[in-house]
Amino acid sequence: MILFFIKRAELYLFIFMLCSFHWVRAQQKLATEIQMPAFAATTVGEVFQVLKEKQDVLFSFNGNILQTDSVIHTRAYQGNLYDYLDRIFGKEYSFKELGRHIIIQYTPQRMSVDFEVKTPNKNKVVISGYIKNIRTNNPISNASIFDRSALLSTLTDQNGYFELDVKKKSNLIAVNVSKETFRDTSVMVIFPIEARIGDKKKREYGYFEGYEEDHGLYRSFWGRVFLSPAQKIQSMNLGGMFLYSPYQISMTPGLSTHGFIRSQIVNKFSLNIIGGATAGVKGLELGGVFNINQYDMQGMQMAGVFNTVGGNVKGVQVAGVGNRVFAEVKGVQLAGVLNKVDTVRGVQIAGVVNMANEAPGTTQIAGILNASQSTVGSQIAGIANRAKKVKGLQLAGIINIADSSDYPIGLLNFIKNGEKSLALAINEESYLGLQFRSGGRVLYSLLSINVALEGNRPEKYAFEAGLGALLLNRSKFSLRTEIATRNLLTEKFKMLDNHQSSLRVIPAFKLSDRISIFAAPSLNYAERDENTISGGRTVWKVWRRDRTRNTFYGGGMAGLMLKL
User: Fold this and answer.
1) Do strands 313-319 and 338-350 pair parallel, antiparallel, or not at all (unpaired)?
2) Where are the beta strands (DSSP E) in 99-171?
3) Going by C-beta distance under 8 Å and a sequence separation of 6 or more, which residues neighbour residue 16?
4) Distance CA 160, CA 181 (A)
5) Using an 8 Å Cβ cutoff, are 479 and 469 in contact?
6) Per mean pLDDT, which range of 9-18, 101-110, 138-147, 379-388 is the poorest?
7) Which residues contact 356 (CB under 8 A, 6 or more apart)?
8) Predicted pLDDT at 30
9) If you compute the radius of gyration of the chain from its CA atoms, what whole number of angstroms results?
10) What is the pLDDT of residues 181-207, one digit of tens each?
């Protein structure tokens, strides 16, 4: 009996030594000796900045719980970083270290772990037990139980019970327990054989900075449909911690080579036969239907239907239907229907719609619509473009809308700080026209409806569309140039086959801030009238056209312009 207790004591001592060793290895920066001055009145953010400069650490926390502008009062301190943070924030907060990051969590509650180890066969171990609240002794449901090295994970049931199946590849594993608002707990488990630590390579892990920011992945349509509530709970429990793995293969998000802990794994290669949900990708991901990444994607991601990323994308996304990114894209997005992102820097190409809150330096190309809530580089769309500020070209089949866009090209351009004017003008062919100009400070579009003042001609009406540029704009004088094409209609609004084109130079003299008068010489080309006998080859004339022949001729236009 004495020998039994001695062996049991040796076992517990060994476990304690292993836990101590693990804690010291994992808390290098928190264990660092520091020296801090007294602060009569300062903010949490200023203390973090001092520690960042002195100790090269970054602090991550939930801004809804801990605010950097909170005022604190501290005495001079000399000791380790962990005790200093504990002194500032108190026992209701816990601190853990991942790389350069110190993660501060609000954990006012504590848990206890009771477990036992079963060995059904020599190659399998089952760790089972109960997780309880130390203060109330009530079971804790939906707590995450995971083994970081073996990539195993599960959740406790409503009774706080869990089972974790482990393939016996080593004699020692660390079982980690996490639950939101509870302090993390780790237990070293020694299998009931001779205990020794092998030379197995330690699995690499990392941390996503700013994971507390809610990008809405789980609240989105794709998150609600394709991600289980258990995955959301797992993410909340484990926070921004993730592990690296060379590859993963899944049939669906629930059937993966990484099992339940898949949502915290970053893979270099990910193959999803139907679809998969992981922490992220740093390499290549292929999905038959969809790919869902909780945090970041770096490299290339291709899916038959859609890609969804809760963090940042750096590389190329290709989807048959749509790409949805909740943070920033640096690279290229290609989608058959829709690209939607918070911020993009690169190129967006979609068959139907591109949408971004901010797109500085980005080119958006869409079959129907491009939309940016802020700055964008250039936009090209089959129907419409909308942005706050466009720094490059804005080209649309019908309409461009922006606060600022110097180079819009479309039938209608509603630019807040640009050109909007109406003009009444008469030309050398005795057409009286009402002209509407809309655009930016440089380029603008021209739309005009005209009626012939002379009655003895086949064409009674004319519709004109063109593109113009404002070359000079002074307080009393402006200079424009325009190219326009004119379509002719009969009195019954039947379209005629002969067309006319014009190149104009329009000097205008400003009578007031809003009214100008202009007289514009033009070089024109007109096709001969329908149903006339051809008078021969194309002819050049100084003034007006020859109705029996195609004609290059000089003309002019004069009128009054009103700035809207």
Assistant:
1) unpaired
2) 101-106, 111-121, 124-133, 144-147, 152-155, 161-167
3) none
4) 16
5) no
6) 9-18
7) 339, 340, 341, 342, 343, 344, 348, 362, 364, 371, 372, 373, 376
8) 81
9) 36
10) 888 777 766 555 433 334 444 555 555
Q: Which tokens in the block code for residue 41?
A: 């009145």
Choose the weakest-confidence range: 151-155, 397-401, 411-415. Answer: 151-155
End-to-end CA distance of the chain: 101
Q: If you ran DSSP here, which 8-state letter would residue 139 be given? A: B
Contacts of 419 (CB under 8 A, 6+ apart): 413, 437, 438, 439, 440, 441, 444, 470
Residue 531 main-chain phi, psi, to 5 deg: 60, 30
Structure-token pair, residue 177: 């327990």
Tokens of 14: 């060994």
Query: What's this model's pTM, rounded to 2 decimal places?
Result: 0.67
Q: What are the structure tokens assigned to 547, written together? A: 């109705």
Backbone angles phi and psi of 454, in degrees to 5: -90, 135
What is the token pair recorded at 149?
Answer: 């090295």
Beta-bridge partners for 453: none
Q: Decide: helix, strand or coil at residue 229.
A: helix
Look at the block and give the residue holding tokens 């520690």: 51
- Three-state SS for 533? coil
Q: Are 258 and 275 in contact (CB under 8 A)?
A: no
Strands 255-256 and 275-278: unpaired
DSSP single-letter state for residue 528: P
**Sequence-ordered alpha helix ranges (H) in 212-303:** 221-226, 229-238
Burial of 323 (0-12, 13-18, 19+ CB in 10 A): buried
With residue 52 as reference, give the H or E element that holds it: helix 44-55
d(CA 541, CA 84): 92
Say if residues 290 and 300 touch (Cβ distance below 8 Å): no
pLDDT at 143: 85
- To 10 degrees, what angle do helices 81-89 and 44-55 make? 180
- Phi then psi for 430, rounded to 5 degrees? 60, 35
What are the residues whose beta carbons fall under 8 Å from the beta carbon of 137, sequence distance 6 or more?
Answer: none
Alpha helices, H only, 351-485: none
Contact predicate 464/486, CB 8 Å: yes
* Amino acid identity at 168: K
Six token digits for residue 549: 């022949």
Q: Which of 286, 245, 280 has its CA nearest to residue 263?
A: 280
Task: Kindly state the helix (H) or strand (E) to which residue 29 belongs, with its residue range.
Answer: none
d(CA 296, CA 233): 19
Nearest by Cα to 225 from 306, 170, 302: 306
Rounded to 10 degrees, what is the CA torsion of 374, 379, 383, 384?
A: 20
Work out whether the CA dihedral 16, 19, 25, 26 comes out positive or negative: negative
